[in-house]
From TrEMBL:
Recorded name of the encoding gene: rfbC
InterPro entries xrefs: RmlC-like, RmlC-like_jellyroll, RmlC_Cupin_sf
Protein name: dTDP-4-dehydrorhamnose 3,5-epimerase
Pfam families attached to this UniProt entry: dTDP_sugar_isom
Protein origin, superkingdom: Bacteria
Enzyme class, broadest EC rank: isomerase
Quaternary data: Homodimer.
Amino acid sequence: MIEIEKTALDGVIVITPRRFGDARGWFSETWNDARLREVGLDLNFIQDNQSYSAPRGTLRGLHFQTNPVAQDKLVRVVRGAIIDVAVDLRKASPTFGKHVAVELTAENGKQLLVPKGFAHGFITTVPDTEVFYKVTAPYSPENDKGLAFNDPALGIDWGMPESELTLSDKDKLHPVLADLPDYF
Ligand SMILES: Cc1cn([C@H]2C[C@H](O)[C@@H](COP(=O)(O)OP(=O)(O)O[C@H]3O[C@@H](C)C(=O)[C@@H](O)[C@H]3O)O2)c(=O)[nH]c1=O
């Protein structure tokens, strides 16, 4: 059994798989292909990724891969907590440039499905956070692109001042939305 919640952005959904609790703890099917197909999600995941972020306030993003290796991502947290963000980059979409932000924690077990055509990023809200996500296309450095996390046009509230963030050098230099080509 899985709970599916729509968000304000078409295609971005929150999935909460059931947890079966007992005296030992709990058990959960964190991904079940047949169950997702039953609810119309036909996704061919081909790679699993995991990242560990030591400091609270680690911000990774905003990232996306362009076609032909655009990726759908199914994101969850196995330790700690994040605010997970998806930004609509589909030029013809009525919600182009809009974003959703969802709290994913090891405790709440929520998963965010970020489809192709969206930029993705997250900030860790506690130290020692591990994020696990499945993707539907292989990593391709040539097609790996970024969008500035602090582009004022996006208006994302990351919940922490920029002086407290830890970013990769690459993530400090991404273009703003207005300077991105029409990728999708
Ligand atoms: C994403 C990725 C990175 N790498 C390598 C490249 C580099 O040497 C090292 C770290 O890469 P990055 O700095 O891009 O890692 P990171 O900043 O964690 O990138 C990730 O951020 C989140 C928000 C996403 O949505 C992911 O798709 C991915 O872009 O890992 C792979 O080998 N395979 C992969 O699939």
